């Protein structure tokens, strides 16, 4: 589906240099979420996700992460509620992780780093006809962030983990169907932080309403190790580079307020 915008993503070099200037640059992501600075907002509603596993299509190694892509040509897999005014369509999810279990997440909570972070990417189909339009609009995207911590094996994730060797190299794609991404959400989705931010990779557009779950999900050490067996490089390249540390560094808050749905 267009949401992975093959051109936009594939131009990225895995360890791309931080551009000096970003258009606006007032609401960049990721950020550190300071517990004491976040503000409880009683008007925040519960999140409503309705994901249809039949919209799951494929897994693609884009040379920066692996994307699980969904058919976003209809309103079959959607997100609404929470801080959102409109209904958003799920187009893909992907992860960011480190070379070891000490770091890897993009967002932090009181500077605490998690070994990995899941991003479920949605675009505003009430206001825009195409993902490409939404990705440059200030209310165009909604990304749910879920922290991963090392613990028990995540049964739902294992089907995905078993497929990863088939997309080891950059630009490889494999069919992947009937996967319900709600199995990757924590039990409680009522407790989250939300703030106005950006894509965390080029084009870094300031189009994202971030919704970061307070409760992490648990995955096993071995499951994370399979993430690290992926490669940034394509099969043709002589030197193979492990796909690790594919996260952006925290960005200045610049006066933004992070709201919480809980006290
Ligand atoms: C051209 O459009 C794009 C480009 C890149 C991403 C992926 C970024 S954005 C995020 O949250 N994490 C990431 O790695 C994207 O996702 C919405 C949309
Ligand atoms: Zn991401």
Strand content: 25-35%
Biggest sheet layout: 13 strands, mixed
Structural class: mainly beta
Tell me roughly what share of residues is in helical segments.
Answer: under 10%
Cα(first) to Cα(last) distance is: 38 Å
* Count of separate DSSP helical elements: 4
List cofactors, ions and other ligands. Answer: the ligand COc1ccc(C[C@H]2SC(=O)NC2=O)c(OC)c1, zinc ion
- Cα Rg: 17 Å
Tally of strands = 15
Low-pLDDT parts are 6-14
- Helix/strand order, N-terminal first: HEEEEEEEEEHEHEEEEHE
Estimate the global geometry from the Cα principal axes.
globular
Structure overview:
- The structure is a single chain.
- With 263 residues, the chain is mainly beta.
- Helix content is 10%, strand content 28%.
- The protein contains four helices and 15 strands.
- The strands form two sheets. Strands 2, 3, 4, 5, 6, 7, 9, 10, 11, 12, 13, 14 and 15 form a 13-stranded mixed sheet that branches.
- Strand 4 and strand 5 form a beta hairpin.
- The longest helix has 9 residues.
- It starts with 5 loop residues before the first helix and ends with a strand.
- About 3% of the residues have low confidence.
- The protein binds the ligand COc1ccc(C[C@H]2SC(=O)NC2=O)c(OC)c1 and zinc ion.
- Ligand 7QY binds next to helix 1, strand 9 and strand 10.
